[in-house]
Amino acid sequence: MCAFHIIDLGAMQILDSRGRPTLSVTLTLAGGATGWAGVPSGASTGAKEAVELRDGDDSRYGGAGVTRAAARITGTIFQRLKGRPWYSLADVDQALIELDGTPDKSRLGGNATVGVSMATARAVAMAHGQQLWEFLSPSTVRPRLPVPHFNMVSGGLHASNQLDFQEFMIAPIGAPTMAEAVRAGVEIYAVLRGNLAAAGRPTGQGDDGGFAPDFTHPREVLSALMDAVDDAGYTASRDQVAIALDPAATRFRRADGAYQVAGERLSTLEMIEMYAQLAADYPIWSIEDGLAEDDEDGWRQLTERLGDRLQLVGDDVFCTNPAVIEQGIAGNIGNAALIKVNQVGTVTETLQAMDLCRKHGYARMVSHRSGETVDDFVAELAVATGCGQFKGGAPARGERVIKYNRLMHIAAQRPDLPFGLADR
Description:
Layout (H helix, E strand, L loop, with lengths): L5 E10 L5 E9 L4 E5 L28 H15 L7 H12 L9 H18 L4 H5 L10 E8 L12 E6 L5 H21 L19 H14 L9 E6 L12 E3 L2 E3 L1 H14 L2 E5 L7 H11 L4 E4 L7 H9 L5 E4 L1 H4 L2 H13 L3 E5 L9 H9 L3 E5 L4 H16 L11
Parallel strand pairs: 4-13, 6-9, 9-10, 10-11, 11-12, 12-13
Antiparallel strand pairs: 1-2, 2-3, 4-5, 5-6, 7-8
């Protein structure tokens, strides 16, 4: 790869989809190629995630401002990156890691490093005349259009209702194309809204755009999803329109180790049995963070009990961190990993995490965050890595829809790309 030179690096504070501050980063290369990044941010975060650098000034944005992180980008980081040749995105990312010098990106801020990394990727792709997904695609991987997993109902930290489970999603696994998968998601979402309204249920939205009705038990939601799929003219089954759950169980595990779901205290074994029963009664194909991130013995039992029947996705338990994922694989924790670029802090480390999963037969699902921008980077990443799964929120609201629209644009431009779940 030819050398490139970074001649300008800018950053400013903008707002994410929840009205909280986040970063906008712009990077310019000699020759005029530019890259932009809008940095996402999560509400339900794992303990091992890269640390965001926030201002801590309670008089402004309740302490959540990111002007310090912006200053790190335009100061310390730019001073390190300018005035020398770079030969790859990996080289830039390694420089960011070394400059930060902490295991969790806490000196520069994971929000600062990931913004620079994403912007660099876009700029270098432009300089090479490539689309972002083409540039990001590993040489050993065939790009693939992923099955979208649409958030239909939200709970947990993502909504102001009594649901303990965080996300209830539908996945049009049986759709023949990306366009038809998106159509299914949109039509089912619209029918669900109508059904909730007709039943006198609230149709306000959670952080991800999913509805936040006044349900209390997961079965109420699952029954409503089954009705919506059927009423919209689709078939609810594991090979047509399947259901995916993200309980985000760390949030409802109590200090004594018990889990609290719909007012009932459950042991780890009882939680596992609940999932087994739900999967027997509904077309559930994937469960993310079914147990808490520190319940390692429970995760092994969950994997042993259900791993041959269900996709068991680690999010908080892995945090897109290659070292943590490697430990999890050795410990027989789950069989898939959720992938969030900002969890680990650089694009290169994200690609390394996905490569590690692929080599060990773990599935990958690229994901947005609850606090999003109109950056569609994660949609490009999902196609580039051929993972076959993408979680982008509801088919509503601009910061979510822009990801699905980008996937449809790529599908239209490249009809030769396969669509659907990938082999592990």
